[in-house]
Every structure is written in C-alpha cells, then in structure tokens.
Amino acid sequence: MLAAPVPVDGFTYGLLTPVTAFVMAAVGSALGLRCTMRALTVEPARRAGWLLLGAVAIGTGIFTMHFIAMMGFTADSVHIGYDVPITLASLGVAVLVVGVGVFIVGYLGRTAFALTTGGVITGLGVAAMHYLGMAGMKMDRGRLEYDGMVVALSVLIAVVAATAALWLAMTVKRFGVAVGAALIMGVAVSGMHYTGMAALEVQAQAVNGAAEGKSPAEILAPILIGPVLLLVFVGLFVGMDPLENEWRVSVEDEDAAFGGEAAFGGDAAVGGGTVFGGSAAAPEPAGSGAATYFERGGRHGG
C-alpha cells in the first residue's frame, strides 16, 4: 500500500506545550548568557568553568524546549516513539555546538568578530539539536519528509535571532536589555522549532483506527526529568555565586584581560548602554573615583 500524507497536530494540548516550551528556552538562555557574561569578569583560570556552565544551560534549554513542544505533536493513526540514545545525543550536540560559540566569545572578548561568529555557531547548535532530535523519532508505519526551503528558513531564524541575542546580552549592560536578550534567544529556539515543524510532512499508510501505544507526553516526560533538574542545578549555582549580586569589573580591567584592545575598537561606550559605532561618553573627571563598571543587581548591569 502506497504511503500518503496524514494529518498532523503540533498543538494537541493547545497553548500549554508551546508556552511552557518557550519559557524553558528563555530560562535556559538567561542562565547561559549570564554565565557567559560572568566568564568575562574572572581570571582566565576560572573562565572555562563559567563558559562550560553557560553552554550546558543554553543547550539544555534548547533540548527541553524541543521535547516539551514535541509532547503536543501527534500524527493521525501513527504511533510515535523515540530512540533514547539518539534523543540524548541531541542534547550532547546542543551543548557541544553552543559551547564552541560561547567559548569564542569568552576568550576573544566583546569584539564584532567574536559576537557574530559565536552567535552564528550558537544558532547552528539550535538547528542541529532540533533535526537530530527529529531523527530520533520512530513511527510504526510512517516516515518524515521535509520542505528544503522551509528547513533553510528555520536555520536562518535560529542564526539571526541567536546572534542578535548574544550581541545585546554582551554589549549593552542594562538589566532590561539582558532580559530582552534571553527572550530573543527563546524566540530563536521556539521560532526555529515551529518553522522546522512547518517544513515537516508525515507520510504513512492509511490505516483504520487510532494509533496504539503511549502518547508522546508519556514517552518524553521521563526523558525530560534529568535535563530539567540540570537547569535547576545551574540556576542554583548561579544564584549562590558569592559575587553574583556584587561583582563588577572596570572597562580597563577587561581590556587588559583581552590584550589591551577595547571591544569594537573603542567605538562603543560599553558601560553606558550605548549604540554601536558611536562616540564614547565623555570621561569622568580625574580623581572623581567614578569608573565605568559592568554591574549586577539591576543597578547598571544586566
């Protein structure tokens, strides 16, 4: 019997799965971007640990977003299962690829090259996790087919939004902008996911009756327990950082850490919440004791 397209539903539980998935992506992104920013303020010996934690947070946020959203995905008369090793491998790929992006920023600083390259690689990490996760889907009498143009669009969305989020988070030191960067990163992950799902068509043999077996939610819930707990652990670690509410670093200190070169060639007044390529703010009077700081706690920092 020839296979034919079957109806699919990506919102079996209404808005519950897409909203919850977006929240998880934004939370993971917020923690990961915070860890990446924190890495820029510590000595090189400690930097790798913060960057690794940032990659774990963002990668895990991508993974949990994807599979929470997939809880709401069903195909008519087709039983959907998941290959556990491939599913978990998609988490590892997300952490690995995102890690490359954040390590570039962490060790090259807030330069245009580092932020752009890091953002592009991070966006590709989002896409890699999604399509490897989809490769782990098992159907009893169906197969997946994709529209190549829509797939390309989904990757572009991930890359552009992730790059924009990284630029905002790393260059404009204000709390509201940091929150906005996390939300943009959440849009990158969710937008990429649902665009990628729009490219999907399920081909299956026509069979009378409903699919038998466990629902996607029943299958995926146990798999998600570990990653969700991992995000909680990262959040607790960041929250218990003894310097988290007080840390600050002067522009001069950060420039010294990256070979004495100011980010963007000195054109951006990073500490003042500035525009790129504009003139730096007027310097403080000598002896005033007022240095430019990146601050945490909502006062000046993000």
Automatic annotation (TrEMBL):
Q: Does the keyword Disulfide bond apply?
A: no
User: Could you confirm whether the keyword GTP-binding appears in this record?
Assistant: no
Q: Which UniProt keywords apply?
A: Membrane, Transmembrane, Transmembrane helix
Protein name as annotated: MHYT domain-containing protein
Q: Where are the transmembrane segments?
A: 12-36, 48-73, 85-105, 112-133, 148-168, 175-199, 219-238
InterPro entries the UniProt entry points to: MHYT_dom
Domain MHYT, chain residue ranges per copy: 13-203
